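Marked as duplicate of an earlier ticket. Keeping the data here for the record.
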Amino acid sequence: MRLRVGAAAVCAALALAGCGAPAASTASPFTDLGSLAAAVRQSLGKTGTVRLLMSEESGKGTTEVEVGLLYNGPHTAVDLRMANGAELRMAGETVFVKPPTAQTDSGGRWIRVFPLAADLYSRAFWKLAEQTAEQTDPLRTVDQLVQGGELTGSEPAELDGRKLTHYRVRLDFERVAEHLIGFISDESQYRIRTRLSGKGVRIPLDLWLDDYQRPVKVVLDERPMARFDPDLTGSVLTVQYRRWGTPVEVAAPAADLVDDLGG
């Protein structure tokens, strides 16, 4: 699965049920990335769940993923669902994986993966789950935005009838490479880093915030990377934040539908 959550989830905010919304801001748009990120981070201070809908468009087609995430606490939980019927649930120290519906031999069954298992498939599933949880953590990605980005402009905007502020950011590839390509094989990482090194690649990112400094939409355009690496098709990743205030509960599948892997 190529689509990454963290690459576009530079900021995420979701009010926890019962916390209430923060006071709306009437201030002018931010003019520097540090102040913008600080405001978003403050709005995330007491949040802990987020639901997002992601789509990635590339020369190979479109991929869609829906994610429910419980973060910023002692235990991370992830509920990831792809359009092809595949699912991944990470709750505590256990990962459950459901193959795509096209794989009819799976019969709708789940695979339970153990964190200390030594087999190749278990390690791969755990790496995917951990990277999804880590890279989706909005507090972490806000910090990375400051470290590797530059605010280039802003203006009032309207999206689906909502009045928002649209911010335009450019990311320095060499400063955010780990976040963008850290999920792929070491060999592929080396190839991409070598071909893009010293080229001054800047990656456009568009961010829409509401009056509470909560993200509504993020669009990351990775096509500039493909100019220097013919093996990359280039993609545009869009993340939409929905159902704010909805608790995220990641439950284990029914025991009679689960098979163990690496146990």
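See parent ticket for discussion. The helical segments are 33-43, 120-136, 138-148, 173-181, 186-196, 223-226.
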